């Protein structure tokens, strides 16, 4: 995947992430010019994180350009967390394949939550680096409280579903602290 060519498209909030990219949703009509390019440079999966239902326009564009559309809703509501847990293995598989474009409306907040969940509950065990946060940054006045609420709800739902904790609570706390530290980094170029 040619990430530099994608970054040159000037899509708002576009950044590399785990062998793919994250940025503003590709359902925006103003980004129609970017679809042929992202397909040409190797994006094969669009991951939609909005929690208001599957986006028919984006599904149609994915079909038109021969890309997979994957809906992974992100929020801290109990029903959404249950969906997140249920779809998590499929979500991790798509991240691991690379060549993805992951986004919520602006590619900032839900995207930080999804990538943090990926790292805390999967990527850290695989030796991956924690995600570089773009939306929940102290420098822009956003703390990590919503990320932590989702992580806590996800941990509780996994524990309930599996009948055991997904990891020792001390390790979970350590990983959440790593996410908090990521929020304090200055990501401006």
UniProtKB/TrEMBL annotation:
The protein's name in its UniProt record: Tyrosine specific protein phosphatases domain-containing protein
InterPro entries registered for this protein in UniProt: Prot-tyrosine_phosphatase-like (IPR029021)
Region (Disordered): 166-189
Origin: domain of life: Bacteria
